[in-house]
Design goal:
mainly beta; 207 residues; eight-stranded antiparallel β-barrel
Length: 207
C-alpha cells in the first residue's frame, strides 16, 4: 500500500503543492459524468493513461464524484472507487458547483481510526454530529456559516459547542486513511476543549 501511495503522489498535481491560489481552492471538488454516449460508461484506470488497467467504471449519469486532484498534464482526475483510487478522463467530468470547500458552504464528512470515529459537518448549516466506537454519538452546533479560514495553506476551522466544546480544522492536503488504498483531498484534526489529546483523520465532501 505504501508503494502505491508514493506512486500516486508522483503523478498527482494537487492544491497544497502549487503556488497558484486558484488551484488551491479547486480541489477536492464534486463532479458529474458528461458527454458519454448511451450504452457506454466512463472508465476508471489504475494510472493516468488510456492504456492503463481498468479498475472500475462510472455510469454515464453518475453524479457526486469527488475529484481529489489532477495529473500533471491536467487531463486526468484522481477519483475514489469503493476501496481504492483511480484515474478518469477530465474530458468527461464536469464540476457540479462553482464554489469551493474553503468557502464553508459544502458539507464534509471526516473520519479516522484508533479509535474509529466519524464527524459529519452539515455546512453551511450549523449542525454537526460525532460518532465513535469508544464514546457513542453526540450532536453539536457550529459557528457556521461564519467560519475562520487561512489561505496559506488553505485551512477551514469549524468551532462547535454541545456535550463538549472544541474545533475541527480541515486542511487542503493529500490524506491516507491508513486502512485501504483510498486517498482523500482533505485532512482533519479534532480538538476538544479541556483535553490534551485530539483526533487526526481525513475528510471527503458531502454527508
Amino acid at each position: 500500500m505504501l508503494l502505491r501511495f508514493l506512486i500516486l503522489l508522483t503523478c498527482l498535481f494537487v492544491a497544497p503543492f502549487t503556488a497558484n491560489p486558484a488551484l488551491a481552492q479547486e480541489f477536492p471538488a464534486l463532479h458529474r459524468v458528461v458527454d458519454v454516449r448511451a450504452g457506454d460508461m466512463l472508465n476508471i484506470r489504475a494510472e493516468p493513461d488510456a492504456r492503463a488497467e481498468i479498475v472500475g467504471r462510472f455510469d454515464r449519469t453518475q453524479t457526486g464524484i469527488e475529484v481529489i486532484g489532477l495529473s500533471e498534464d491536467r487531463r486526468w482526475g484522481l477519483v475514489r472507487t469503493e476501496e481504492r483510487v483511480g484515474w478518469s478522463s477530465m474530458r468527461y467530468l464536469e464540476a457540479e458547483r462553482s464554489d469551493s470547500w474553503i468557502d464553508g458552504r459544502q458539507s464534509l464528512t471526516c473520519m479516522g481510526t484508533e479509535p474509529f470515529w466519524t464527524f459529519h459537518l452539515s455546512l453551511p448549516g450549523n449542525a454537526a454530529s460525532y460518532d465513535s466506537l469508544a464514546e457513542g454519538a453526540m450532536t453539536f452546533t457550529t459557528d457556521a456559516p461564519d467560519l475562520p479560514r487561512t489561505r496559506g495553506p488553505y485551512t477551514l476551522a469549524v468551532p462547535f459547542t454541545g456535550p463538549r466544546n472544541g474545533m475541527v480544522t480541515i486542511r487542503n492536503a493529500v490524506c491516507d486513511d491508513g486502512m485501504s488504498d483510498r486517498l482523500y483531498g482533505l485532512e482533519a484534526q479534532v480538538y476538544w476543549r479541556g483535553r490534551t489529546e485530539g483526533l487526526s483523520g481525513c475528510c471527503m465532501l458531502g454527508n
